[in-house]
């Protein structure tokens, strides 16, 4: 379809007062020969939108350039249908609200932004959603313990078909072994009975849930809404097609044989918390050494947890679990001496009441490091510790049983690191550190990057627990419960419900060709112009989400429904053959080329700012909203992720005479804040390549700067922008200016 | 370092002696930080840490019996009213003291005091027959079958020459208001509040029993106390021993009489007056408004509030048996109180407790501020305003 551009300039919100709108109109109609260009004093109003709608209907306008407020606001107001390309010129926040009114440089800035957007509108197309084949909205739940059962029940209750795969012959997982759960209802003072059989009954009785017990996942291929799952059940095979996956394989207790310093393996009466729970379940709580009743017990918390020699992390549930087990003893006989040795008692929320109750029950709580679990000489055990609260070493009275509250080890962490393909002889070493993928034999994904979900610290397959608690780094696969992070029963059940909802969101969005997360609803996706692919593997290796597989000739095989639309592949591709309909190396490159660069003697430098859409760009808007000012030399282009930056843009900008380039991205490294995990880090790695470009052009490397910025840092932006401008002034103008 | 031994037996013994909530303590340390001992320097301040002391108690571990630690607490209640766990800290202090004192190991300096209370029914070594000496020159009615109120005068105000002024003032005020009241006299015994706080449970029981029998035999129904300590123990500790009466502190009664128009006060006090809330009147009994209302009436030139007032009032250090403690100058809470008053520009520091009077006068003298600040019992100001 012939493209017809309409440009609309809003003069409201102070724009008309600050700018020469007639001159802007002339840029559109004169320089860019836009057939339709109108101004309106209140463009987002019903009347303003009617003006645009009339042009769409009567004039055949199908590409809209809205020169008004930030693209982050009024999104719905300027939506005229998915088939219309919309490009927004941010005259309000980033021009008139952050620069002096009626100023020549402010006007030049506005005109440049209009030029850039008109260029983009000319180059871009409205996205066409990806349509997969044979789409499934069923949800696979891997693991039939408390979390998996809950996820299955919740998904089924919401109307979705579920396939539940459990490795043992019975459903229930660890919860089968459990007598009671910690209190979940007022007054939170007594362990609580939990109806596991009822939950299992709901799942097995549901006609929406197919249950495979005694089974494991042999392999999973495909992508969201098109996952093909092979299930091994007692020697026989089954195949299921599903849309999304909840990983709920749980955790196992830390191997107590490594805890000899706490007496395990040395004294038969030193046992683990799960062994004690099993004793209570069997109704036979006896000393393993002699079968005699237990007339005194000591619990040692953080057994292996929060210990750099063992599990460095907190296992989250063991404090409360031990309180619960202590309560079993006190309920059976209030006179039984019970000791709890702890580092910090983390009885969060209402569990505080249980803790308080046990204090009232006379449990000895000892805060400090256990220094020994020893025979008392009479066949029982005594625990010595450095008690922080009395600042002295102490010795307990004799007890018959010592219980180690061993920590939680995610089942996802039980496996050897998967070796991504090693560089062959002569090939470049991978610059980007590979993700940690542990071959834990849970999902067996047929993904080029490895068979499981990438792990964060300590082997937990979490992605970004603060911003996106349910996300993994594989679209459509949602870890829940203790496989994802240490947590207790009630949190695991909440987690299960959350993951089920994420899985539902995934299948619904994917079925409409929309991105799930974090660019939820985005219809664009990367397309590969394969004729020119050199099989360099950059895209497959750098995609943070493992969206791209590879054929045997190393051709990339993209999976759009796994893709998060970050554009990292586009930034990585040296052949520039990866593009989105509305975002490509060419589109952005042309925007850069349409920035007017004044001659050197005009002394009006130009700075290109590539700003991450997620944090830096909104922060720039915040600067305007607060009416803070910065220099008018900058020209900002929002990028999906700094990782989508292609080096050719830098070369384009510098050879055009632009004086400096500022990259604004999110924090990278261990505490990364990048929405696309590795994008910002990759941009940083590419910075080293930028140096080569600069050397080739014989330019100073200080002309390109990378700043890490989070959205809350907006207050620092004027200083960053003006500081860079003044540093560039010291360097002098880009010598390519007058070419 | 040799390990200390945890002892459930010792812990349970302490609990049985009254430290019933010692196990509830979660060792947050708020109590230690709120304790007035943090406001002064010196050995006791360095050694006494109420959180730590309770920790030893809950572990049944030795170390708390050190006299500097065990008898430091003035039972002011600052910690207890703020404890996030609702620990009855003062009961714990009492229970821990009782576990030592009850075993016959009372500190040497307290023995004569406890002994006097045993022998004479008062801790001030005053002979029984001198208990009514303070009445000289007054016509104090004897309590009889038709008397409405029994006026119980604190031992301190019976025997301490300075303190008798308060008792005498109260009598004048009650008479002016036409209250039907009377005293019993020599047979009365110390209320025992401080004896119990010192851990002498047996002595307390003895004193309380003797009082309860006496009061009940005499047909007492309502009691006016001159001291907030007697008020507190009669109200909170006597009922379960069989002493159930309507107990009122003189400030509350007088305030009621003023409100009812039965007592009129003419502002006579021409100096700026500040009121020091006694712990046992304020934090322990919740009485803050009555003394202030009375003072308002009597103080011609108005009153000033101390910066630490009402619930946040700072202890004089006289409770919990500390009135008998020897404390070096510079470490006395009362000195801080005198400074508080001077900071607010007060010329008179009034209070409504004989122990507070005792401690504040000492502090004022030790700071050599008696020319600038006069310490008086509220009843004295009121009596002068009749
Ligand atoms: S790098 Fe980003 S845009 Fe490219 S395939 Fe991967 S997820 Fe999609
Ligand atoms: S955080 Fe990073 S990766 Fe994320 S969007 Fe920003 S620059 Fe990109
Ligand atoms: S404030 Fe209460 S809970 Fe905290 S340490 Fe003191 S007594 Fe214990
Ligand atoms: S009652 Fe007062 S003196 Fe005693 S520990 Fe508490 S705050 Fe300190």
- CATH structural fold name of the largest domain in chain A: FAD/NAD(P)-binding domain
The value of Rg of chain B in angstroms is 21 Å
Give the largest interface: A-B, 25 and 24 residues
What's the SSE pattern of chain B?
EHHHHHHHEHHEHHEHEHEHEHEHEH
Please count the helical segments of chain B: 17
Class of secondary structure makeup of chain A: alpha/beta
Q: Cofactors and ligands present?
A: iron/sulfur cluster
How far from one another are the termini of chain B?
Answer: 67 Å
CATH superfamily of the largest domain in chain A: FAD/NAD(P)-binding domain
Mean pLDDT score of chain B, rounded?
96
**What overall geometry of chain A do the principal axes of the alpha carbons give?**
elongated
Class from helix and strand fractions of chain B: alpha/beta
Strand coverage percent of chain B? 5-15%
What's the domain count of chain A?
4
Give the strand line-up of the largest sheet of chain B: 3-2-4-5
Q: What is the strand content of chain A?
A: 15-25%
**What number of domains of chain B?**
3
Text of the CATH class of the largest domain in chain B: Alpha Beta
Query: What is the CATH topology descriptor of the largest domain in chain B?
Result: Rossmann fold
Tell me the CATH architecture of the largest domain in chain A: 3-Layer(bba) Sandwich
Protein name (chain A): Putative adenylylsulfate reductase-associated electron transfer protein QmoB
InterPro entries (chain A): 4Fe4S_Fe-S-bd, 4Fe4S_Fe_S_CS, FAD/NAD-bd_sf, HdrA-like, MvhD/FlpD
Keywords (chain A): 4Fe-4S, FAD, Flavoprotein, Iron, Iron-sulfur, Metal-binding, Oxidoreductase
GO molecular function (chain A): 4 iron, 4 sulfur cluster binding; metal ion binding; oxidoreductase activity
């Amino acid at each position: 379809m012939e493209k017809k551009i309409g440009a609309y300039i809003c003069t409201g919100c102070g724009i008309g007062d600050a700018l020469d709108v007639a001159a802007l109109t002339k840029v559109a109609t004169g320089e860019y020969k836009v057939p339709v260009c109108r101004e309106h004093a209140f463009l987002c109003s019903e009347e303003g939108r009617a003006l645009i709608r009339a042009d769409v209907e009567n004039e055949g306008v199908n590409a809209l350039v809205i020169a008004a407020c930030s693209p982050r606001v009024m999104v719905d107001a300027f939506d005229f249908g998915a088939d219309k390309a919309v490009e927004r010129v941010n005259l309000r926040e980033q021009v008139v609200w952050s620069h002096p009114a009626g100023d020549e440089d402010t006007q030049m800035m506005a005109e440049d932004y209009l030029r850039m957007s008109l260029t983009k509108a000319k180059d871009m197309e409205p996205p066409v959603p990806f349509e997969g084949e044979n789409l499934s909205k069923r949800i696979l739940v891997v693991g039939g313990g408390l979390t998996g059962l809950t996820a299955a029940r919740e998904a089924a209750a919401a109307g979705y078909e579920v396939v539940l795969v459990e490795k043992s012959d019975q459903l229930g997982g660890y919860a089968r072994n459990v007598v009671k759960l910690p209190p979940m209802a007022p007054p939170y003072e007594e362990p609580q009975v939990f109806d596991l059989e009822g939950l299992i009954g709901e799942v097995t009785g549901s006609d929406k849930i197919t249950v495979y017990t005694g089974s494991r996942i042999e392999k999973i291929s495909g992508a969201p809404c098109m996952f093909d799952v092979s299930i091994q059940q007692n020697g026989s095979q089954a195949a299921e097609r599903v849309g999304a996956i909840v990983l709920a394989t749980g955790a196992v207790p830390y191997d107590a044989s490594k805890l000899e310093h706490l007496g395990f393996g040395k004294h038969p009466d030193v046992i683990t918390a799960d062994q004690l729970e099993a004793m209570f379940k069997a109704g036979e709580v006896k000393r393993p050494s002699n079968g005699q009743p237990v007339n005194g017990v000591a619990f040692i918390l953080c057994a292996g947890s929060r210990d750099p020699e063992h599990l460095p992390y907190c296992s989250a549930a063991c404090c409360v679990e031990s309180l619960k087990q202590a309560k079993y003893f006190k309920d059976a006989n209030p006179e039984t001496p019970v000791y709890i040795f702890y580092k910090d008692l983390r009885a969060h929320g209402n569990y505080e009441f249980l803790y308080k109750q046990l204090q009232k029950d006379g449990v000895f709580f000892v805060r400090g490091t256990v220094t020994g679990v020893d025979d008392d000489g009479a066949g029982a055990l005594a625990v010595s510790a450095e008690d922080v609260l009395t600042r002295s070493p102490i010795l307990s009275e004799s007890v018959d049983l010592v219980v180690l509250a061993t920590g939680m080890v995610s089942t996802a962490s039980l496996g050897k690191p998967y070796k991504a393909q090693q560089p062959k002889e002569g090939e470049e070493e991978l610059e980007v550190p590979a993700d940690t993928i542990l071959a834990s034999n849970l999902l067996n994904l047929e993904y080029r990057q490895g068979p499981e979900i990438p792990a964060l610290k300590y082997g937990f397959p979490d992605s970004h627990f603060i911003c996106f608690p349910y996300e993994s780094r594989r679209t459509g696969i949602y870890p829940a419960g203790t496989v994802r992070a240490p947590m207790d029963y009630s949190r695991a059940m909440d987690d299960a419900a959350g993951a089920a909802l994420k899985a539902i969101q995934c299948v619904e969005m994917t079925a409409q060709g929309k991105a799930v997360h974090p660019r939820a609803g985005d219809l664009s996706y990367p397309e590969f112009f394969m004729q020119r692919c050199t099989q360099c593997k950059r895209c497959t290796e750098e995609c943070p989400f493992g969206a791209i597989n590879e054929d045997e000739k190393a051709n990339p095989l993209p999976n759009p429904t796994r893709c998060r639309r970050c554009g990292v592949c586009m930034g990585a591709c040296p052949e520039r053959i990866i593009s989105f309909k509305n975002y490509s190396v060419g589109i952005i490159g042309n925007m850069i080329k349409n920035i007017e660069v004044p001659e050197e003697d005009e002394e009006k430098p130009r700075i290109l700012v590539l700003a991450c859409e997620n944090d830096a760009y909104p922060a720039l808007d915040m600067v305007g909203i607060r009416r803070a000012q910065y220099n008018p030399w900058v020209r900002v282009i929002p990028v999906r992720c700094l990782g989508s930056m292609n080096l050719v843009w830098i070369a384009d900008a510098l050879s055009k005479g632009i004086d400096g380039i500022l990259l604004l991205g999110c924090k990278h490294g261990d505490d990364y804040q990048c929405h696309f995990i590795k994008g910002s880090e990759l941009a940083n790695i590419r910075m080293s390549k930028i140096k080569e470009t600069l050397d080739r052009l014989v330019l100073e490397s200080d002309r390109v700067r990378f700043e890490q910025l989070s959205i809350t840092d907006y207050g620092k932006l004027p200083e960053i922008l003006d500081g860079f401008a003044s540093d560039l002034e010291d360097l002098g103008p880009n010598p390519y200016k007058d070419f | 370092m040799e390990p200390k031994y945890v002892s459930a037996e010792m812990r349970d013994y302490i609990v049985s002696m009254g430290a019933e909530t010692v196990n509830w303590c979660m060792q947050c340390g708020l109590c230690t930080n709120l304790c007035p001992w943090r406001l002064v320097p010196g050995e006791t301040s360095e050694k006494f840490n109420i959180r730590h002391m309770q920790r030893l108690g809950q572990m049944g571990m030795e170390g708390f019996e050190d006299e500097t630690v065990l008898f430091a607490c003035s039972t002011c209640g600052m910690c207890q009213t703020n404890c996030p766990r609702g620990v009855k800290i003062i009961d714990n202090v009492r229970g821990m003291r009782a576990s030592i004192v009850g075993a016959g190991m009372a500190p040497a300096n307290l023995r004569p005091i406890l002994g006097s209370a045993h022998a004479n029914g008062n801790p001030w070594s005053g002979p029984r027959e001198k208990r009514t000496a303070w009445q000289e020159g007054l016509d104090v009615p004897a309590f009889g079958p038709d008397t409405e109120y029994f006026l119980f005068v604190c031992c301190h105000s019976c025997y301490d020459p300075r303190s008798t002024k308060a008792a005498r003032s109260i009598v004048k005020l009650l008479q002016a208001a036409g209250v039907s009241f009377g005293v019993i006299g020599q047979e009365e015994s110390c209320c025992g509040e401080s004896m119990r706080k010192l851990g002498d449970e047996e002595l307390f029981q003895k004193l309380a029993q003797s009082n309860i029998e006496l009061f009940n035999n005499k047909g007492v129904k309502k009691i006016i106390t001159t001291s907030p300590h007697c008020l507190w123990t009669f109200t909170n500790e006597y009922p379960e021993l069989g002493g159930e009466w309507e107990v009122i502190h003189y400030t509350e009664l007088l305030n009621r009489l003023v409100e009812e128009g039965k007592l009129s006060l003419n502002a006579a006090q021409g100096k700026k007056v500040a009121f020091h809330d006694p712990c046992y009147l304020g934090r322990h009994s919740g009485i803050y408004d009555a003394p202030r209302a009375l003072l308002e009436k009597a103080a011609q030139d108005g009153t000033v509030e101390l910066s630490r007032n009402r619930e946040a009032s700072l202890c004089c250090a006289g409770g919990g048996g500390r009135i008998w403690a020897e404390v070096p100058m510079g470490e006395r809470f009362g000195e801080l109180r005198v400074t508080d008053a001077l900071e607010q520009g007060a010329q008179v520091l009034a209070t409504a407790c004989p122990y507070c009077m005792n401690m504040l006068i000492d502090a004022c003298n030790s700071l050599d501020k008696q020319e600038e600040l006069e310490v008086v019992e509220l009843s004295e100001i009121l009596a002068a305003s009749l």
